[in-house]
Specification:
The complex is a heterotrimer of chains A (497), B (99) and C (506). By secondary structure, chain B is an alpha+beta fold. Chain B has 3 helices and 3 strands. Chain B has a domain at 6-42. The chains are: A alpha+beta (497), B alpha+beta (99), C alpha/beta (506).
Chain lengths: 497, 99, 506
């Protein structure tokens, strides 16, 4: 079954979108939210579990203080209020990967509330208001066995590993974002991207979307244009890259519009995003079975962060993004246009790290903002997930500066890095990419080029030095780009003038 | 006076994942009505100005250091499992989505 | 009957220290007694003869090497089956946990082991501690040693019956609404519910987390104090555990055992007596009050008007918390797994439903459904929310009463032990057994039940309850020990001397 979609411009002509994002951030604490088991990714199944995170009868939770600290720092970075007193609550529902059949979360007393961040899309600033950020715990992971696809439907049975159960999560929920119109998909993407940068800068999570330690759910509804109301929303899950966030919003806008145009109603439901096909499919309908029977967790006592502690944590926050951007632009000497381009491509942090690794700001921008951003876009992945690290980019630039490779060869080095062929130096050696600057080899190639292009040679002899470019190009072609272009030019001019 | 109907008991049993049969519903529903009638007597006893007590002792901020403590072995973790395979808990097929 | 089993834990500790006996002898004597009478009493769900004797031998070796771990090193104990014991089955009296062997120890169990106390086995209880008669055990009821046709109280009827029948000198119980004190009352034994948070709940399979407390089940007040000092104190694994240390309880008992109560203000709670209380219970209670007056106590009547709502409050808070606690029993990770009949390739959810139907008894189902109702949206404020507010009022009543009195006293239970089966399918009648004990759980204060004598009409034990302010556990021990002394002087020996011997019972 394929959904009917309304052409994009028609959606915008008739409807105003309201957007909401729920982002789960898996913290990088050493231990889980409520027990001392390691909170690390991977590990042999069911080896990072204890009576508490396995939900064994009688076991009890104890709050990880570091996780509370991370939650407060995230809240402060999002300009939130920090609760003077709040509690954990049980969210009761049955699911086999949830050991206690309730999730220890927070309900009407989140630790952080009422915040905002500004995101910039094509030069326009949108203020995204944060409703709340609260602490909770992750679930285990199921492996669905049997059936055709290994997916949940059609499986014969499932195998559950509880290593992930109890890893601390911070859920960050926005208020409805209204008025973004055609930019709604880009605003959604920019918000998640900026949130990720902030989380990385705080150092509280690895925040890798591809690893699942940053997970976004996209809420979307449409209202007839100009009414200012809120339509019925759907909640799209499993949106695991910045690009998918953007695509999922766009898709749901087009799908909602088709349903509404046909006189139908949107049902409040969960939908699943499919990265491969770029569509959403219906999941669970919201119903009165969603009565989670929240109540305060009686095995935990309230969290009451002192104002002194909150202020102390405020002092540990990284620089405000706007000020930081201004500082970096000044340091790097970028034009406004260049800076905007850098921010829009999501390469500010990689450039900063590349500069820190020794590259010049201009070189770092050249590689990240054009070369690598383009490749990421072509591959449909986020640039940070391309497989090239800032240190590697700096190493490539070092090779360029030393004359070992030129820019064109450097692109082949990036091919090698993305393919996982080793360090830049290893790739240059293995692929034989080093620039030839040896006069013997170059001289022979120049002679051959002169012989093959007598007309051009004559022009140069007649003083038209600009014509040298054609000979240099011929030499480069002959040597598959590996010639030292500057030396070739010198040789051509030496021989003909 | 609060009444709890047979249908309501069936719905609650469903929420609580208990497969009550008709005979059990017939037996439990009237008992639950009586109990509910009895406990409903507290309505209105405490005014809006009375704060709720969720913990008998007024403790706050009980935190743990972020230091790893030994986990169970997989063998211990799985020791009570009705079924296991590949060092994982083996459970019947799961219908529906996560929440 | 071996002399060893008639001794108190304090006497056994002295005999061990004096080298007059060994832990192996003591432990064997109790195992023999269990063999003789437990067929009739059914206090135990699991007896670990081999483990207990091995622990006893280790204790003897330690003592021979000159280093007993504690005053009670070598004195055996029985543990209520709601406490996790590594390597020993822990069923909570439920089919759903049949055969479950925890891979860890509850903190209190760990403390028993650290103190060198051999664990005789696990005692019977109402399923998940829901009940006042032990009849809701999935493994059959425990019988009251005073009259085998009668209930031993609940939910900890197994622990109380085990000490009353001399099958164990000591036992651990848990008290959510009276499950230590009420069985103590109806079996003529001593039971203490400590201040909430003063004994770790880690490893106690929760019934109602904000009410549950582990405590001693013994034959004398001194024994309770000795055991309480072993299990009490802060536990970093229990977030609700308080950091203040346990007051000196054995010293309080010694002071009380002089029988002098001069200057102690004893408050008689008006709302915990009168209508609904059996004549013989009222009579023994009045005698106890009179004795205390004779010993120098000043008796005042206090009123706690909100106590009349305690039962309703309790039956909202408890089922709500329990419905959530018991959700984990779903056939996925441990315990029973039942496949639904006539369903091809059942789903996880089908199996959960079938297992929970087959694995839980009626009382558990009643309370889960009631709790699910009380927490569901639209009802939360009227039920659970309101109950938490009334809880505040009950604590305020206690605060006011403790301004006028140092301790409060009442009958522990409104009646003596009733006949097995009499109230089994009448939940409200069953719930009324905990009328006098519930307020202490709602506010967290400590309480003790000490034997008050036998009711004239049926010759069965009556308990007297003494309550003290939060953290003043030493007061319940002092006054409890005084009353124990005063009554024993009057009777010419402990009440249990008058219980049937049960020799040849099985």
């Amino acid at each position: 079954m394929t959904d009917t979609l309304v052409p994009w411009d028609d959606v915008l002509a008739a409807y105003d979108p309201a957007l909401g994002l729920e982002v789960h951030v898996e913290l990088n604490t050493h231990t889980k939210m409520f027990c001392g088991c390691p909170a690390v990714f991977g590990g042999e199944p069911n080896t990072q579990v204890c009576p508490t995170c396995l939900g064994l009868p009688g076991a009890m939770p104890v709050v990880n203080g570091k996780a509370v600290e991370s939650a407060i720092r995230i809240g402060l970075a999002l300009n939130c209020e920090i609760a003077e007193w709040c509690r954990f609550a049980r969210k009761n529902y049955f699911y086999p990967d949830m050991p206690k059949n309730f999730q220890t979360s927070q309900y009407d007393e989140p630790i952080c509330f009422e915040g905002w961040i500004d995101v910039e899309v094509e030069g326009e600033t949108f203020r995204v208001e944060i409703e709340r950020a609260h602490m909770e715990e992750d679930t285990g992971k199921s492996l669905h066995v049997g059936g055709a696809t290994g997916r949940i439907h059609g499986a014969d049975y499932s195998l559950v590993d509880y290593n992930r159960a109890g890893i601390p999560l911070i859920e960050i929920v926005t208020k409805p974002i209204m008025g973004a119109g055609a930019k709604a998909p880009a605003v959604a993407r920019a918000y998640v991207s900026q949130l990720r940068h902030l989380i990385v800068a705080l150092g509280v999570s690895e925040a890798r979307m591809d690893q699942g330690n940053l997970r976004a759910d996209v809420n979307l509804s449409l209202a007839p244009q100009g009414t200012g109301g809120l339509g019925t929303r759907t909640e799209t899950k499993n949106v695991n890259s910045f690009r998918s966030v953007e695509r999922a919003v766009r898709y749901e806008m087009q799908r909602h519009a088709a349903v509404l145009d046909a006189g139908g109603s949107i049902f409040q439901e969960t939908r699943h995003w499919h990265e491969d096909t770029g569509v959403t499919t219906a999941g669970r309908a919201k119903s009165d079975a969603d009565d989670y029977r929240y109540f305060p967790e009686p095995d935990l006592v309230p969290v009451a962060p002192s104002r002194e502690w909150v202020e102390e944590l405020r002092g540990t926050l990284p620089e405000n993004p706007v000020e930081r951007r201004a500082r970096l632009q000044a340091d790097w000497g970028y034009t406004d246009l260049e800076m905007r381009d850098v921010v829009a491509s999501g390469v500010l942090v990689p450039i900063e790290e590349t500069v820190a690794a020794g590259a010049s700001p201009q070189a770092a921008r050249k590689w990240w903002s054009s070369e690598l951003a383009r490749r990421a876009n072509d591959a449909g992945v986020d640039v940070v997930d391309l497989g090239v690290s800032p240190a590697q980019v700096a190493a490539v630039q070092t090779l360029v500066d030393a004359g070992t490779v030129n820019d064109k060869l450097a692109r082949q080095v990036f091919d090698g890095l993305i393919a996982g062929e080793g360090t830049p130096e290893e790739i240059v050696a293995a692929r034989g990419l080093a620039v030839v600057s040896d006069d013997g080899a170059l001289g022979a190639a120049v002679d051959a080029a002169i012989a093959a292009n007598p007309d051009v040679a004559d022009k140069i002899r007649d003083g038209k030095v600009a014509a040298a470019g054609a000979l240099i190009g011929a030499v480069m072609k002959e040597m598959r780009g590996q010639a030292d272009a500057a030396r070739v030019r010198e040789l051509v001019l030496e021989k003909l003038t | 006076m609060p009444e709890i109907s047979r249908d309501e008991v069936a719905h609650l049993a469903d929420l609580a994942r208990i497969d009550l049969d008709d005979a059990e519903l017939d037996h439990l529903a009237p008992q639950l009505s009586v109990i509910l009638e009895s406990v409903a007597s507290i309505s209105g006893v405490a005014g809006d100005d009375v704060p709720p007590t969720s913990h008998p002792m007024p403790l706050t901020n009980v935190f743990r250091e972020d230091v790893v403590t030994p986990s169970l072995t997989a063998e211990q973790a799985l020791s009570g499992a009705p079924a296991s395979d590949q060092q994982r808990f083996m459970v019947p097929r799961i219908l529906g989505d996560e929440q | 009957m071996s002399d060893l089993i008639r001794k108190t834990a304090a006497q056994l500790a002295d005999a061990l220290a004096a080298g007059e006996t060994t832990s192996v002898e003591i432990t064997q004597a109790h195992l023999d007694r269990i063999g003789q009478v437990d067929g009739a009493v059914h206090a135990f769900l699991h007896v670990d003869a081999e483990g207990a004797l091995a622990q006893a031998a280790e204790s003897d070796a330690r003592r021979a090497a000159g280093g007993p771990s504690s005053a009670l090193d070598g004195v055996p104990i029985a543990v209520k089956d709601v406490l996790a014991t590594e390597g020993l089955p822990t069923t909570c009296g439920s089919k759903i946990l049949e055969g479950w062997v925890p891979p860890y120890d509850a903190t209190v169990v760990r403390r028993l082991r650290d103190a060198g106390m051999p664990i005789l086995g696990k005692t019977n209880m109402d399923e998940f501690a829901m009940g006042s008669s032990t009849e809701h055990s999935a493994y059959g009821p425990t019988h009251n040693p005073w009259d085998l046709d009668r209930i031993p109280g609940g939910s900890g009827g197994g622990s109380a019956a085990a000490v009353a029948a001399f099958e164990a000198p000591l036992a651990l119980g848990t008290d959510t609404g009276g499950s230590i004190r009420q069985p103590g009352a109806v079996t003529g034994t001593v039971g203490v519910k400590p201040t909430y948070g003063s004994v770790s709940r880690y490893g106690l399979v929760a019934l109602a987390n904000s009410l549950d407390q582990v405590g001693p089940v013994t034959r004398t007040v001194m024994d309770a104090a000795l055991l309480h000092e072993v299990i009490g104190g802060h536990d970093p694994r229990d977030s609700t555990s308080i950091t203040q240390s346990v007051p000196d309880l054995t010293d309080a008992v010694r002071r009380g055992a002089t029988g002098d109560l001069t200057g102690v203000r004893v408050g008689v709670v008006k709302e915990l007596g009168g209508e609904g209380y059996q004549d013989g219970v009222q009579a023994r209670f009045q005698e106890a009050v009179d004795l205390m007056v004779g010993a120098g106590a000043e008796v005042v009547e206090v009123s706690c008007p909100t106590f009349v709502h305690a039962l309703a409050t309790y039956y909202l808070i408890l089922p709500a918390e329990a419905s959530s606690n018991l959700a984990k029993f779903d056939a996925m990770r441990y315990g029973l797994r039942v496949l639904p009949e006539g369903v091809q390739s059942p789903s996880a959810e089908d199996v959960m439903r079938a297992t929970r139907d087959a694995g839980f008894g009626d009382e558990v189902k009643r309370r889960i459904i009631l709790g699910t109702y009380a927490l569901s949206s639209g009802y939360y404020d009227a039920y659970y929310g309101q109950a938490q507010k009334v809880r505040t009022l009950i604590s305020r009543d206690f605060d006011a009463a403790f301004e006028k009195a140092d301790v409060l006293i009442s009958p522990t239970a409104p009646t003596t032990a009733f006949k097995l089966g009499e109230k089994l399918d009448d939940p409200i009648a069953m719930y009324l057994n905990d009328l006098a004990t519930i307020p202490a759980n709602l506010s967290g204060v400590p309480g003790i039940s000490v034997p008050g004598g036998l009711a004239d009409e049926d010759g069965l034990p009556v308990g007297v309850q003494i309550l003290a302010p939060t953290m003043a556990d030493d007061r319940v021990y002092r006054v409890g020990a005084a009353l124990e002394t005063l009554l024993a002087d009057q009777w010419g020996g402990p009440l249990l001397d008058r219980a049937p011997s049960l020799n040849g019972a099985s």
